[in-house]
Amino acid sequence: MAHAMGRTCGKHGTGTAATALMLVLAVGMTACSSAGGDQVSAETGEDAPLSPASVADGGFPERDLIVTAICTPANAADPGMVTVDGWDPESWKRLAHAKFPLPPNAVGAGGPDDTHASHALSDLCEEDTITPPDAGNVTRLRSLFDQDFTKMAVVTEDPQSGASHVGYVDRSGTFTDLTGDKGFGNTPQEDTATFWPDGSAVWFVSMEEGRPNPYRVASRSVTGDHKAVVHGEGEDWEYLTVVRNPSRVVRTGDDAHVSPNGERLLAGNRVMAVPADAELVDVLEEPGAEQGICPDATAVGWIDDDTVLCGTNDYNFRTLDLSAGAKPSAPILPENDHVNRGMVISPDGQRFAFLSQEGTSRDFYLSSTKPKSTPTKVEKTGSLSALSGTAVVLEWR
């Protein structure tokens, strides 16, 4: 097969509740201890083991948290690892830590024979020294995980038969194959695995050659017999991205963000009403979608119910009110020659995180969403020093 295929907890409002959609991992109380999570000791300034009381309900704290992810790519001796950390957005102390060992044949893990460069995991594992990741990568990566961040959706491929299966890996590294062995018949071609927010099912795109509409969007329950349920079909495919509050799976060419009130969807630089009932939203086929919301760049996300943050072609940022005739704001950042790419917006819409590349150096910055702001660099000290330039900010909640 030619594999072209390929935020959240809390509430919106004051403080730092969860953003509209994102990508995050979490770890249970037991896993926090065993996975090597840490805090910074007030006495020594060194990393100290996390206590179970430092996380809510056995997972990452539900608010006042910035989450990052980084991949250790696969190689001939190691199938790879995804590591996720939760940080206090003010002190940048590490509050949570989790590791997801990948199956040996995981698609997109960056191995030497990996041909699935379009799979979402490749945005994290395929190191790109030229183009930094941005909000589009963030939303696709967030969609790999369930609501509580206990599982990560994975696609595997049999190098001999070419069959690709969907399933999930937990924090212990156990892979559950949801496609399974169906016996003699058509070779499974299932890709773009995505978790429904409550973790009940993995959604994916399958391909069956010879049909008028060869691509199907389907899901498999994580319980029972895992039988595929078809939700839609078409002549082509695009990424599947999960949005929350209300929960939907969106077929779009890039990212997708739902407004804080849950009424409008910003996807692929379009704004449209969130369908009342449909679990699957097909942005590419939606006739009423408005195009070109950020006319000369890409959308980062919602600041409030009527305002979006846009990244511009000169690698700056502007806000845009969506009312008729509104003009983009003045530039947010000072004039600079960095390559700046927005990642996530704070729950109150007052700040955002972006990755800035200067030559081969990459650093995270936080900035106000107001024009003419001065960004603050996130210094890589203590536990933060372990982050490489390929790390991605998955969520701010």
TrEMBL record:
Region entry Disordered, spans: 35-57
Pfam families: PD40 (PF07676)
Protein name (database record): WD40-like Beta Propeller Repeat
Source organism of this protein record: Nonomuraea thailandensis
Lineage: Bacteria, Bacillati, Actinomycetota, Actinomycetes, Streptosporangiales
